[in-house]
Batch of 2 targets.
Target 1
Amino acid sequence: MLELTMASVSGTDAGATAGMLMADAPSEPGAALRVGRDPAVCRLVTPDDWLFVSRVHLDFQCAADGTWQVTWLRGSQPEPSSEVRLTIGEHTQPLAYGGTVALSRGGSGEIVVQDRTSPRSVNVGFFHEA
């Protein structure tokens, strides 16, 4: 099972957990969880006017072997208006626009989608049960 928690953070609200959203999906081939502005497609939905987040921004997919991966989907613009970084333990790395990273089984971490123009972010915590 993959469990996600999401908090939308703006300016001085850093560290606030009010409005935290949660979603999970079984580790079965083809299972998916999505994060973005489109409530018709995404299980975790950001504020509609936060245009630094695409309609479907992050796509978590379960592979045939039960492992999960996350992809930062390319949006309608050639250059993104956000930065995405992945933290697992002490290690932080950028996630490339259009890039995919495998999540280790039994691992946890955080993905931060940071607005390039203002102090806003979407923080998505994940836990992949072994």
Target 2
Amino acid sequence: MSETYPAFDISPVPVPALDAVAPEPFRGIYGMPMFVTVPTPDLAASVDFWVRGLGFFDLFTIPGRLTHLRRWAFQDVLLVTNEHLAEPTALSVSFSCVLSQLDEIAAACERVLPGCTTGPRMMPWNSVELEIRTPDNARVIMTAARPYDPNSAEAAHLRSIGIEGPGK
């Protein structure tokens, strides 16, 4: 017996569909269940990239020290000043988006920092992912779920590892 259950009603992520609409940026204040901290030697340039490229907004700033960015509910990033540029890492952070946003995000990021994107590419877990390297060397994955097709190779792969699709 599984102890998991559908709890999509607490998530801002819309049901996967080709015409899914992204939720509005969430400006409410809440206890953050999770957030990412990204050290940066150039706070202004980093904020600019995350805002103009990745679609986050500045929730608040402590000048010269920290900027709290947000996109959808529960997509929080703290940019903090650090003298040194971090080395590129395999560690990544993923943020949900909808399919129609991937090309827009890729184009916006490329305008701000040419050569920073890879993809988008289809993944075997039924999503399409765009990889972005930020000016601070953070590896960000924007991931959009695809509509579930029970006859697809991705659905067969998920079933093979014990994950049933919607409605099961």
